[in-house]
Amino acid sequence: MPIEVDVAILGGGPGGYTAAVRAAQAGRSVAIIEKDKLGGTCLHRGCIPSKTLLRSAEVYATVQNAAAYGISLPASAEASVDWTAVMRRKDEVVSQLHKGVEALMKQNRIQIVRGGGRLMGPSIFSPRAGAVAVELEDGESETVVPRHLIVATGSRPRRLEGVPYDGHSVVTSDEALAWPSRPHSVIIVGGGVIGVEWASLLADFGTAVTLVETADRLLPGEDRDISAELAKQLGKRGVKLLLGAKLDASSCVGADGEVSVRVETSAGESETLRAERMLISVGRVGNVETLGFENTDVKTSGGFVTVNPATLQTGEPHIYAIGDVIGGIQLAHAAMHEAEVAVAHLLGQAIPRTADRDVPRAIYSRPEASAIGWTEAAAKAQGYDVRTVKLPMRIFGKALVQGEPEGFAKAVADRKTGDLLGVHIVGPHATDLIAEASLAKLLDAVPWEIGRAIHPHPTLSEAMQEVMQAVSGSAAHGS
Q: pLDDT, tens digit, for every residue of 91-122?
């Protein structure tokens, strides 16, 4: 007999399990179809393991710099990196959170169907497309027939054609998270979020890092001030940045513990790079193959599922898609928000979907960076008469207390209306500070209102208060 439920979710990552919980809380019967572990890329191959490694790297860097805080270590107590222990801690954190997700499913009586799913067209099971044929782990098959289906199959690292990936010397971020040893040197191809975070953590662990980016700056989608500041800070820590460089993928060779590849630099010169390993981080593609979309009116474009941007419905109104598989801003918290939107819609309710630009963006390098809303350049391109203020972190007492004075807080506002257009932060705990700006965007708060709110002293949150006062013309530290 087929499994009949009100809502089925294809994929058990952050978007999928959030959708499942919300539907179950609304009294609907729910099944998640997942061929791997619950938690998806974020928990097992992305957010959580990489941030755990970044934390270990941060602790190591702090110990290395202990003298700056008045802490002396005897020569015999020199810190060293135990890579096996670092990776074990990463695995323990992932395991604990995975158990939590499993428990959450049981708590909400959500049925887990473990296997790969493929959408079916109209059949004896259902007069409309959307039933899911599942190949179970034991080789048997099952059919799930839902009233509503949510596709949340996520994404995977994009691969460069011609590069000889071997899972050890030449890898994507997926394989790098399982490296059995720390590389002494590495070439990172791609200066987006993943590339910058890996450059930061490996540099802190003592790896010689060369980062190659085709654009003329790191993080080309972010504000230029963020790009410049992170480039400066990575450069100070020894990371070699080749910006505006073109990689000759066909020249990549990996043998005898060394990877070599040719690049054309921004000056038009050819340079051969050599390192122990190479990490490719050039974006992600949606997991849309083999899902049986050809049996339905679900359409794809550029490797991602096409949806109504407001409701997240596909070409089949009862089938929704959320998260990385629809492209756009590929972040776990964006997928969770989209899950809320999709479930509300299928329940006959309405939650407005937040525009991609107003989803907070976080970069967990050292120093951290975060942003929300328009960049200064994008706001100007949209025709806004902008007022911008950028205050250095070093003017705030807590940043000096922390020993992390690098960075800034920047606000972009509409000079005519006073509306807040964007916030951009580099500095300690920037990824936490951006939450206040996210709330402000949700409530449509203007800068003077944020600046009027009392912020405790000394805290890093004062950076938000001061920059908002400054952009509205009343900062204590000036603009």
A: 999 999 999 999 999 999 999 999 999 999 99
Interval 251-263 mean pLDDT: 90
Q: Classify residue 71: in a domain, yes or no.
A: no
Domain enclosing residue 41, as ranges: 3-45+89-156+285-356
Catalytic residue among 98, 318, 457, 477: 457
pTM (whole model) above 0.90: yes
Residues 321 and 387 placed together within one structural domain of the fold? no
What are the Cα distances from residue 390, in Å, to 161, 373, 405, 468?
Answer: 41, 16, 14, 10
Kindly state whether residues 151 and 222 are assigned to the same domain: no
- The reply to whether 68 falls in a domain is no
Residue ranges of the alpha helices (H) in 260-331? none
Peptide bond into 74 cis (omega under 30): no
Give the pLDDT confidence of 364-418 residue by residue, as tens digits. Answer: 999 999 999 999 999 999 999 999 999 999 999 999 999 999 999 999 999 999 9
Residue 40 lies in a domain: yes
Supply the CATH number for residue 411's domain: 3.30.390.30
Cβ neighbourhood burial of 256 (10 Å; 0-12, 13-18, 19+): exposed
Query: Is 148 a catalytic site residue?
Result: no
